[in-house]
Please model this.
Amino acid sequence: MDMTSSSVQRGSEPAAPNASLTGPSVSLGAVSFVSNLLMLTGPLFMLQVYDRVLASRSVPTLLVLTGLVLAVFAFYAFLDALRSRMAARFANVLDARISGRLFAAAVHFKLVANAPKTADPLRDGDMLRQFLAGSAPLALLDLPWVPVYLAVVFLFHYWLGWLAVAGCVIITALMIVNEAMSQKPAQQANTEQALRQKQTDDVRLNAETVVAMGMLQDLQERWVAQTDKMLLAQRTGGDRATFFSATTKGLRFFLQSAVLALGAYLVIRGEMTGGLMIAASVVTAHALAPVRTARWSMAQLCQRRAGLVTHQEGAFGQGSRCSSG
Model:
């Protein structure tokens, strides 16, 4: 028993592959930097059209600006596709570093007493890889650009800047409240779903005994009751999340209109031009976009990381005690 445990313990710590995460991380960050920088093309184009083209009525200037914008946005589309492909390859590099440990942990669970039956490190590793290859991490890379966009709005006019900052603060506060109020229903829903799945697995595992002893009807009623509990918890959490999501969306739309209204007032007072008014509204929308996606991205990240870390700690931590015993 000691030899088996020792061998499993040695096997649970394989040498990590030589693949480094530094290069892909820096490259992905650099591409994200350029991609977000190009997002300012739209506001600058509107500024030039409203303040130069319409004032001078110059068709050649409009054609030149349109051609430049077409080239810039074509390059942006290329970078956006490249960034998504880089994220997928970054996920593959990370998977190459941890997949061996996760495989050893999955084997190690079978030797651990009282190990969770639903624990599956390999499945959690696949979920983590799929998360990193998706759009959520890219949204998190866009989040640091919120202060940059707000600074651009301040350059247009400080009144517009403070209005945009106030909108971001209110939306962030709503997200925090939403997270606090939705956490308990989400945990309850996950618990009820796990119990429902456990009932299903137990009945399937003992299907012959259940049918032979005539227990199928009673177990089916218990399963339906557990399903009702799960759906109630999911419905409660979903209703709260929907309320805050709708409120946040309405606030974002109102904030863009408020920026336009305040910008129009400043134009009437002669403190800014019409092009700056339109550009400020567009830049404010760009500033709110990462804030809008940050909550969903972080929720996905925490969910994947919590599942993975929990199973890994259970495997390695309990495994060491089993080996020592």
